[in-house]
Amino acid sequence: MLPTLSFFLVLILSTNVAARAARADTLSDDEPVHVYFGNGCFFHTQHSFVNQLEKLILKRSGSDITALAAYAGGLDDPSTEDLCYHNADSYADYGELGHAEVVSMTLDDSDSVKEAAKVFFLDFKELEPGQWTRQDVFDRGTEYRAVIGLPGGVTGPYYSAVSAANDEVHKLKLMEGSGGDEDTIDTGVVWVYDTARFPSRQAEVCLQFHDDAPTYSEPYSERYHELKDTLLEAGTITNTTCPVNYIC
Q: What is the pLDDT of residues 161-191, one digit of tens each?
């Protein structure tokens, strides 16, 4: 008797699940954890993580800071190694390629991943009882969708830390992202990506440690702005091939 089509579909699905589980098992909590979070404009998000997580909780400063403005979550890769902010030439435009604005970080373990997730979830604001959204509701479109990137994604060893943080804060809907996903504005959805499949790429140097929109917040401190030069000198951030964009 020949195997049926359903047999092969089950076999393929089982193989994929097993492969993902095996990859997750190889991740060690003793190694640095590369993650990213995004919800709206990365200017605000980067400032929040630097001050509320890295400085306040992790006691980092100067060249120890790792929170960088970046792009992630798209399906299509550009023909260059870089992703770029909106520019006149549409060169490697992150939005056109389905990516979102995120902040990438290097953390130490599950505990610090949970702390980062709590900072992330607490940054959502309540529009009405039970409805949570990004800080700037004028940030509209897939580039501003709520995303989290973890090693192994929803099947990885750090997802439980993120899920626990979510349960302690707003209980948003964590859903596995498939790349280039729709905007999450006012839905309570947060897309979760596997960083192996959807890695982040650093944004342009001029967009690092940048002030948020003046209609939203006061200019950030000079000490905060100086982190750009500090991390550039340390090699934590590097120049890109991106052209001049519509911000800088």
A: 999 999 999 899 999 999 999 998 888 899 9
pTM (two decimals): 0.86
Q: Vertex 45, ends 109 and 36: CA angle to 5°? A: 40
CA–CA distance, 227 with 239 (Å, rounded to integer):
15
Are the CB atoms for 103 and 41 separated by under 8 Å?
A: no
> Cα separation of 238 and 158, whole Å?
28
Give φ, ψ of 106 to 5 degrees: -115, 120
Please compute, for residue 58, the number of CA atoms within 13 A of its CA located in the half-sphere on the CB side.
Answer: 26
Beta strands in 129-199 (DSSP E): 131-133, 147-150, 173-176, 189-194
Q: By the 8 A CB rule, do 212 and 101 touch?
A: no
Task: Give 148's strand partners.
Answer: 37, 192
Instruction: Tell me the percentage of the chain whose pLDDT exceeds 90.
Output: 71
Strand, helix or coil for residue 120: helix
* 3-class state of residue 54 by DSSP: helix
The token duo for 68 is: 């960088």
